[in-house]
Amino acid sequence: MAETTGFLERHHFLLRRLHSLSGVAPIGVFLLFHLTTNASIVWGRLGGGGAPGAVKTFQHEVNFIHSLPALLLIEIFGLWLPILFHSVLGIIYAVSGRPNVGHYPYPGNRRYTLQRLSGYVGVLFIFYHVATLRWHWTFLIPGGTEWTAEYAASTMGAVLRGGAAGMTIAGLLVSAFYLLGVSLLVFHLANGLWTAAITWGLTISAQAQRRWGQVCFVIGGLLMLGAWSAVIGFATINHTVARGAEEGVHAPEPTPVLTPGMAEAGTLRDEH
Amino acid sequence: MTASANGSHKPAHTKPAAKPGRKVRFKVKRCDGPGKISRWETFEVPIEPGSNVISCLQWIAAHPVTTEGVRTTPVVWDANCLEEVCGACTMVINGKVRQSCSALIDAYAPNPGDEITLEPMTKFPVIRDLWVDRSRAFKNLTRVRAWVPIDGTYNLGAGPRERPNDQAVRYVLSTCMTCGCCMEACPQFNIEPDEAAWDTSFAGAHAISQARLFNMHGTGAQLKGERLDALMGPGGITDCGNAQNCVKVCPKEIPLTESIAAVGRSATIHALAKWFTGP
After folding, report:
1. Spatial contact of A122 and A114, defined as CB atoms under 8 Å apart
2. I want to staple B131 with a disulfide (CB 3.0 to 4.6 A). Which of A203, B78, B106, B183 is the partner?
3. What is the β-pairing status of strands B126-128 and B131-132?
4. Which stretches of A122-246 are assigned E, i.e. beta strand?
């Protein structure tokens, strides 16, 4: 314990600034892409294919991510270790404060307290999220659905509902935990962007801090919209329709697709 | 009635006027000495126009009898200037920290039977009743070398000329009286009974702001590196949690959060400069 304290004190400034930096990149940048990808279960419908089209769009994105080389190394060094670092240091820093919103109920003080609360809940949520979906701890999922990258949208829907069929009571709890978790994490990122600008000395005057705060509010609002559409989109997805669309992505043979051989053999000749 | 007969109107009051000749109850948190258990005592004080918390405490000192009729010891408090420039009489009034000399009863308790609670600051050790020991706040000023280095064996002559723009920024920073308000309201600044830990616990917004004040001074800037090194260690600039209560409670309206951000920028530049050019 004494050695740990000594290490933290010797590298105090560097660790604090790395804590701030890691929240913006890679973690914040990842959350931006993660939520944009997941929200495609809703905005993917704009492509004209309706709900099956959105499932296909999402499945293509998942397939792209899983085609990345050395994905496990990217996950470990780009995500899991930075999140672990940010969480452990964040908790050490957070428990050193004594929130006092009762006596001083100013907006800034409420954000200070919520930043710490959202950190605690966010760590729990991220652990549950990664353990159940990525590490396949299915015993923590009501209904025991295993999320698979091949059937990304349909299994996600079953995870959130507590089964492939309609919403269950336990599924409602999981979905509510997801909504709460992502909302708190989006707040944590948006408010963290605001305070990081003060920490690093980018915004100095009260006016500059207010201006950057408005930008962070818009960023947070857009991310919140994406986060909610992702959770609600997956929780309300039709399992059979989603499954069918995913089969279509994996096995294109049954659908008429133009290949050079087919073009020679039939399609082009029919035009004559 | 005469006013309406004349056809004139009384001036419209935005707030109901305080009732003259009323009595206000003071609930005071009392403590007989360091380490002793605190207790509450209530006093009823007749209010005169323009009374403030200090004048009421003076009345209690002259009439130390609680509302239960029990004779007690006079309430002890610290005060000096009585015009909100020394910071000595800072205490927690109705749950919020401020100077008691400028806390007017008419604003806090305009009606008969209104109650005002008085507590000592919680972030500093209590000496007795409402009197606390603010030594740590002053110790934190020495941590950041909050002075201009002019001591020596011969006359150094005139210092560099100060620019009016810098003076304008520095003037309000120089009004800090180390009263303790910013520290009392700060969730990151907490009571530390172990004096040895004062050097590594949060220095407080006032010390960071004073570091900025002297870093901006032509001669004071000679110690800029030392000040930033001190503020980059444990309990320095990084321990600010951006709750920004300090700037809300500062009686001198010092832009403490701007000072914190400005020192944050200096620290960023200082750290990079040290990494690339330092030993």
Report:
1. no
2. B78
3. antiparallel
4. none
Residue length, chain B? 279
Task: Provide the residue type at B205 as one letter.
Answer: A
The answer to whether residues B100 and B77 touch, using CB atoms and an 8 Å cutoff, is yes
Say if residues B64 and B74 touch (Cβ distance below 8 Å). Answer: yes
CB neighbour list of residue B87: distance below 8 Å, 6 or more residues apart: B99, B134, B177, B178, B179, B180
CB contact under 8 A, A201 and B271: no
Percentage helix, strand, coil, to 5, in chain A?
75, 0, 25
Cis peptide before A52 (omega within 30 of 0): no
Are B187 and A97 in contact (CB < 8 Å)? yes
Own/partner pairs, A173-181, CB within 8 angstroms, 24+ separation: A173/A142, A174/A141, A174/A142, A175/A231, A175/A235, A177/A125, A177/A128, A178/A125, A178/A129, A178/A231, A178/A235, A179/A228, A179/A231, A179/A232, A180/A121, A180/A125, A181/A121, A181/A122, A181/A124, A181/A125, A181/A126, A181/A128, A181/A129
Q: Is residue B188 within 8 Å of residue A97, measured between CB atoms?
A: yes
Q: What is the pTM of this model?
A: 0.90
**Domains of chain B, each with CATH number or no CATH:** 23-132 (3.10.20.30), 135-277 (1.10.1060.10)
B212: burial class by Cβ within 10 Å (0-12, 13-18, 19+)? buried
CATH number of A12-98+107-257: 1.20.1300.10
| Three-state DSSP state, A81 | helix
CB contact under 8 A, B187 and A17: no
User: A with B: how many residue pairs have Cβ under 8 Å apart?
Assistant: 99
Q: Could you report the per-residue pLDDT of A96-135, keeping only the tens digit for each?
A: 999 999 999 999 999 999 999 999 999 999 999 999 999 9
Cα–Cα distance measured from residue B198 to residue B204, given in angstroms and rounded to the nearest whole number: 11
**Three-class SS of B104-163:** EHHHHCCCCCCEEEEECCCCCCEEECCEECCHHHHHHHHHCCCCCCCCCCCCCCCCCCCC
> Per DSSP, what are the bridge partners of residue B52?
B104
- Hey, what are B92's tokens? 């927690």
Q: Which of B227, B204, B76, B234 minimizes the C-alpha distance to B135? A: B204
Q: Hey, is the C-beta of B172 within 8 angstroms of any chain A C-beta?
A: no
Chain A touched by B9 (CB under 8 Å): no
3-class DSSP state for residue B67?
Answer: coil
pLDDT in tens, B136-183: 999 999 999 999 998 889 988 888 999 999 999 999 999 999 999 999
3-state secondary structure of B98: strand
Give the mean pLDDT of chain A.
91
The residue count of chain A comes to 272
Q: Which amino acid is at A267?
A: T
